[in-house]
Each structure stands twice: as structure tokens, then as C-alpha cells.
Design a protein that fits this description.
By secondary structure, the protein is mainly α. The chain has one domain: Amino acid/polyamine transporter I. It is about 75% helix and about 0% strand. α4 runs parallel beside α11 and α8 runs antiparallel to α15.
Length: about 425
Amino acid sequence: MPSPEAPDKPEKFRFRLLPTLKRGEMWRYFGPAFVASVAYIDPGNFASNFEGGGRFGYTLLWVLLWSNAMAILIQYLSAKLGIATGKTLPQSCRAYFSPKVNFGLWLAAEMAALATDLAEFLGAALGFYLLLGIPLLPAALITAVVVFLMLAVELYGFRRLEQLIMVFVFGVAACYAFEMFIVHPDWSAVAKGVLVPRINSESIYVAVSMLGATVMPHVIYLHSALVQHRVREDAASDHPEKWLLTMRHLRYELWDVLAAMNGAWLINSAMIVMGAAVFFKHDVPFNFDEAHLTLQPLLPAVSGTAFALALLFSGLSSSTVGTMAGQVIIEGFLDIKFSVFLRRLITIIPALLVISLKLDALKILLLSQVVLSFAIPFALVPLVLLTRSQTVMSDLVNRRSTNYMAYAVTAIIIGLNLLLLYKQLGGNF
């Protein structure tokens, strides 16, 4: 197990010898954070953000701002662990923690992966349903086929899969950029919602679901794996200073994280703004199954299509990424080889059961995001312990200030979860 108190490494020479950022070279490193960012704009985010905007207007925008700041730190630490060790977070957990602790972490990770897969697959099926008007069960089967085809793109190289997922991310962004032009939000209320924290016993459930939908535990595991093929490329290079390659990779990855996470924050904020400007303003309840129909009398007809298309892009890409995360989790914790296609086949079952039983899609999606929020500490605490350990990280060990920020993020997330439990047990505030 890593030392609980690792000494801070001198920062005197860190980044000093690195070349200036070169645009052409930077694009080679762009991609992992954008793949991870898909989880931040998945159907669970649609559910929690539109529910938040539709019920509470612009008042919960601040949750997204601070959740995004947490996500930037967490994703950077995950990438740094992968770059420093050449291992994924689950593999590092297996190497440094006891078998009992490792088994418990694996169970929590699988619970998070199950909740994620359910939300993402269900969201993609809803996207097909809204666009094509076909029943949910056939829509789910079409979703399964398309996701299998997307996963098969990796056979042509992981970079090709990254590029495909980035296209879907930009597709979702384009849909919401269009929506912002036609909803005419109250920008002063938007600014107040972003800057002034407000929460009560009515909004805590939605706020925690928004947190779970933004700081996704499964991509904490995944990001440490997404950097590995570039780590291997650097290791195979004949460059005389491998340390410089590692530091360059880390620096470019920071820019990748900043660009991807802030892009995801803007998309999430656009969801709340749209929910507030349409559903809250007109006192119309938000319902996934009828959202595109509700939008049409209030906005131009094409807005409903844009909503459905964004949901479909989000569901397909995030379902693919969720399957990849599940594979990283099971292979890393249990040290076994597991086909990504078999993983996808297994995780289809819960979503098909939900659809077959005709359960409320919005409630299931919100519940899945709350489950994710409770699962975050089981990924975050090991990540902080590992990245603060010089034994594990060597020269890339966290600075003291980074550790303090990580401790604060962990405490806030656990505190919000406890606040929700207090509320569910009958407490009020």
C-alpha cells in the first residue's frame, strides 16, 4: 500500500526544459480527455440537468461550475497516474492495496459501471425512439447493434475510435449551440445561477444527481487507461531523454483535460439553461418521452429534432465509452482478459429489463446518477492515495497544494452524499 504521507517532490525543474507547445504536436495527444468527457454529457446528464432546469430554473447552475472544477482535477490526476506508472487505476489498486480492499473497490466500481451502462444505453434507445417514433424495445436492439459497430472501429486503431467519439461530442455541442439561439434565456439570471450557490431540501436530490452525472466514477478508472497507448509509443521511442517525453505528454494531457472538461461544462450548462428557459418558464413538467413534442409548440419544430439528435449522439457515444470503462475495471481489478464485445452484451440486459417492464425512464436515469455520486469516493480516495505517494508516482508525485485540493474535493462529495442521506431519512434544512 502506498505511503500515507509521501514527501513533496521539488518542483524546481518541472516543465522548465520542455519545448513550447506546438499545435501540430498537440493534436497527437488530444483525444483521451474528449473520450472521457463523453461521460459528462451522457443521457444521465440530460435527465439531471433538464430536471434541474425544469424544476428550479437557473438556480443549480453553480453545481455544474464546481462539479466541473472537481472533474478537471480528478481527470488530470487519473491521466497523471496512467502516465507515471504505465498502469490503469484498477491495476494500480491491485498492485498496492490488499486483496480485501481491492475486492471491495471492484464491487463499487462494478455498481457504478452498471448504473452508467443502464443510463447510457437507455438514453440512446430513447434517442432512436424520439427521432424515428419506433417502440423502445426495437430502439434498444438498434442501439445494441450500432454500439457494437462503433466498438468495432477500434480494430482499425484506437485513434480512429477516439476521432469517432470526438465527432459525436461536437455533434452534441452543435445541437445545443443551435438551441441557445432560439430559447432566448435570461442571461442575468444565468449569471446569478452560476455565481450564487443556492440549495435546499427540495433541490438536494437533483443537485447530487447532477454531481454524480458530472464527476463520473467509471471515467476516473477509464482515463488512466486511455493514455496508455501514447505511453507505450513514448516508451518505444529512441529519444535519449525519455523523461522529457513523459513530461511533455503530461503537459499536453493537461491542455486536453482543460479543453474537454470545459467544453462538457458548457454543454451541461446549456441543458439547464434550455430546461429553465422552456419548461420552468412555461411551467411545463419535463418528461423524456414527450420532451420533443413539448418543445414544438413552444419553439420552432426543428428544436425537438435537435434535442432528440443530441440525446442519440450522447447515448451512442457514452454507451461505447461506458463499455470500454467496464472492460478496464474488470481486467484491472481481477487481472483477467475480457472481451469488450462480451462486456457490452452482458450490460445490455438491465436496460432491456427496464424497457420491458415499462419503468419511468426519467426516474431510472435520475436514480442511476445518484448511485454514481455515492460510488465516486470509492474511485477518488484510491486515486488520491496513489497519486500522493512517491513510491507510486516517482517524479510525478502530487504537490502539497494538489493534495489539499484533492482532499477538499473528496470531502465535498462525501458531505453532499451524507446531506442527501439525511434528507432521505426525514431531515429538513
